[in-house]
Specification:
Blueprint: E1 6-12, E2 51-56, E3 62-66, H1 79-91, E4 100-102, H2 105-111, E5 125-127, H3 128-138, H4 141-152, H5 155-168, H6 192-205, H7 207-213, E6 218-221, E7 224-227, E8 239-247, E9 251-260, E10 263-272, H8 275-292, E11 293-299, E12 304-311, E13 317-321, E14 326-331, E15 339-344, E16 348-349, E17 357-364, E18 371-377, H9 386-397
Parallel strand pairs: 12-16
Antiparallel strand pairs: 1-15, 2-3, 2-10, 4-5, 6-7, 8-9, 9-10, 11-14, 12-13, 13-18, 15-17, 17-18
């Protein structure tokens, strides 16, 4: 037993993981020529932000952290959750991207020309896909409210969905009172750790929608061309998201992400007084993360990793698979021999859905913090009847 977790299986990796050679690759895999950083894991760049976090997504490893659980006002970083809720509903078939929502007269009076905007016209009908493009690319406050009212009938109904998703994702230091992050006396708040969790889920759960709507440098709507304010675009190779934020109340913030050769970094900074400091630190953190660490693949998405005991189901155990590519990080050029173990609150209780995250893969390497990566059920396990429970109980007693 370890903190309520049962250690069910221990896996030893017998072959040392070797350093990956650097080869000529397209722009997404190359370092950014205008950003100079150290390749030493022990020497991150100087960052002036009061709040900062850098995570390697495939390994789950935190590379840089400063007050990542401190609550702060997100401003337009709120819109990441707005798009995530829409992506979830679309994936469930509850929201059609080609459906149209109306700009109500009262919404027009309140939000026309307020802050960042798509300049939606009074009584106009706008497709969900275009609203999402406006929210993600030009941070349109009016589009957020039109989307919220179209989905839920009113803003409070939509923010209830936002908060429900936050709870599902385990975002403990987050609350949403608005779909666009407009100033609300601090009733909307987040943490860097929660924003990294949300943005990782946005990308890994909805990769097709993420690629469709994120990473665009400009948007033209009603003959008006507007630029994305993400300072990583055109500066950091492989940058494709996620969102900037600014109000006088919040200062300047950024959730940034970049991918090179299948390896993704997620970065959050907040509380800046000047946008140029946000741009400099964001680019430097991501470049350092790529330069100072090498990724060593462990399991590809869908690979079988182990199994877990099940109680009360039609079967007594379920296979565990990698829900996405899983990897570990080592300092640039280093070689390590990791030890892997599977932990879960056991036995698992049926019913279990296929793909449900039910266990954790713990990666231990000497001199490094343990990495904890999710494992998912390989198949659905319905709740069993009396005969199933008796049979599985006897099998468990027999050690099968």
């Amino acid at each position: 037993m370890n903190s309520g977790f049962c250690l069910r299986r221990l896996l030893s990796v017998a072959v040392a993981l070797a350093a990956v050679a650097t080869v000529a690759v397209p722009a997404q895999g190359m370092k950014s020529p205008h950003v100079q950083v150290s390749a030493d894991p022990a020497h991150p760049p100087e960052v002036v932000a009061p709040i900062a976090l850098l995570i390697d997504v495939n390994s789950g490893r935190v590379l840089f952290e400063r007050q990542s659980h401190r609550r702060f006002v997100p401003a337009s970083l709120t819109k990441i959750m707005t798009s995530y809720v829409a992506f979830e509903l679309a994936a469930q078939g509850k929201l059609k991207l080609d459906a149209s929502f109306a700009m109500r007269p009262e919404t027009f009076r309140q939000w026309h020309g307020v802050g960042s905007t798509m300049f939606l016209e009074n009584n106009s009908q706008t497709r969900v896909a275009d609203l999402l493009e406006g929210i993600v690319t030009v941070s349109a406050n009016d589009a957020c409210v039109v989307l919220a009212e179209g989905v839920s009938g009113n803003v409070p109904g939509f923010t209830a969905l936002m908060n429900a998703q936050a709870r599902t994702l385990g975002m403990r230091d987050t609350h949403y009172n608005t779909p666009n992050g407009w100033m609300d006396e601090g009733r909307t708040y987040v943490s860097a750790a929660d924003l990294a969790t949300l943005s990782t889920a946005l990308i890994t759960r909805h990769p097709d929608l993420y690629r469709r709507f994120y990473g665009h440098e400009t948007m033209i709507w009603n003959g008006i061309e507007q630029r994305n304010h993400n300072p990583l675009y055109g500066v950091v190779n492989g940058a494709d998201g996620v969102k900037t934020g600014f109000t006088n109340e919040a200062g300047y913030g950024l959730v940034g992400s970049a991918q090179r050769n299948g390896r993704r970094l997620m970065m959050v900074v907040g509380g800046y007084d000047r946008p140029q400091d946000r741009a400099r630190d964001g680019a430097a953190l991501i470049e350092w993360g790529f330069a100072a660490f090498d990724e060593k693949p462990l399991f590809a998405a869908g690979d079988h990793v182990g199994s877990a005991r099940v109680q009360g189901g039609t079967i007594s155990s379920v296979g565990l698979v990698a829900p996405r590519s899983l990897a570990m990080l080592v300092g640039h050029g280093q070689t390590v021999r990791p030890t892997l173990s599977i932990r879960y609150k056991g036995p698992l209780r049926a019913p279990i859905a296929k793909g449900q995250e039910v266990a954790t893969l713990v990666v231990h390497a000497p001199g490094q913090p343990d990495a904890r990566l999710p494992l998912a059920a390989a198949e659905a396990v319905p709740k069993g009847g009396l005969f199933d429970r008796l049979r599985n109980g006897f099998a468990a007693m027999a050690g099968q």
